[in-house]
């Protein structure tokens, strides 16, 4: 049967997944989970709830995901993927690197605020993923680090940024300064000044990068 087919694991996919990577049933499960998590929240949703919504048994869900957390990771992966896609557009732009760094902070902040006010339940899932150290968070940070390195490399080649500091150290430091805007709880706690803080931090980072 097609449901029993196997493929080599995809290292870019959230952990805990089972079954064929592109199976339409998997997408159906994730869509149902996404809807339930948005409406009721991650903590109040069970695997049985997701299964019931699409007329399946919980046992069938476990053919594709080995736990509720694995389903949560898949939904979190979609949410964070949208954020990363927006940042990738900025990183690939042909504007000066200085401008792109500023826009990274601005975009991170805007998307974090969007989650907080318009997708509160997804905001809570991302917070749970960070607190639980879900692997999807590490992958997201790795993707952001690659985008930062792309911009810093361009800036160095264009003479916008200094070249003495090892690039790995520089990029990791920049990623650390983004944590208040990446972490949902930290962003919420400092919401009143979040836009101003993002601008201040971006300015400080850019001064440190200047040749």
From TrEMBL:
Alphabetized InterPro entries for the sequence = DNA-bd_HTH_TetR-type_CS (IPR023772), Homeodomain-like_sf (IPR009057), HTH-type_TetR-like_transc_reg (IPR050109), HTH_TetR (IPR001647), Tet_transcr_reg_TetR-rel_C_sf (IPR036271), TetR_C_27 (IPR041478)
Q: Where is the HTH tetR-type domain?
A: 23-83
Q: Which UniProt keywords apply?
A: DNA-binding, Transcription, Transcription regulation
Annotated region Disordered: where?
A: 1-24
Judging by the UniProt lineage, the source's domain of life is Bacteria
Asked whether the UniProt record includes Cytoplasm among its keywords, one would answer no
GO MF entry, a single one: DNA-binding transcription factor activity
Show the Gene3D superfamilies listed in the entry. Tetracycline Repressor, domain 2
Q: Which residues bind DNA?
A: 46-65
Write down what this protein is called: TetR family transcriptional regulator
């Amino acid at each position: 049967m097609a449901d029993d087919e196997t493929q080599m694991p995809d290292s870019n996919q959230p952990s805990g997944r089972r079954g064929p990577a592109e199976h339409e049933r998997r997408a159906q499960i994730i869509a149902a989970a996404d809807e339930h998590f948005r409406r009721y929240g991650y903590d109040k949703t069970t695997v049985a709830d997701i299964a019931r919504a699409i007329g399946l048994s919980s046992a069938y869900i476990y053919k594709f995901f080995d736990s509720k957390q694995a389903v949560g990771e898949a939904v979190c992966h979609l949410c964070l993927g949208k954020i990363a896609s927006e940042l990738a557009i900025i990183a690939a732009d042909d504007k000066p690197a200085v401008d792109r760094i500023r826009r990274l902070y601005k975009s991170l902040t805007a998307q974090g605020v969007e989650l907080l006010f318009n997708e509160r339940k997804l905001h809570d899932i991302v917070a749970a993923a960070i607190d639980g150290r879900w692997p999807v968070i590490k992958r997201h940070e790795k993707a952001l680090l690659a985008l930062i390195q792309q911009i810093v490399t361009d800036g160095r080649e264009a003479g916008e940024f200094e070249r003495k500091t090892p690039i790995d150290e520089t990029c990791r430091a920049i990623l650390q300064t983004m944590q208040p805007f990446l972490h949902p709880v930290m962003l919420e706690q400092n919401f009143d000044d979040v836009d101003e803080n993002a601008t201040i931090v971006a300015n400080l980072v850019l001064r440190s990068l200047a040749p």
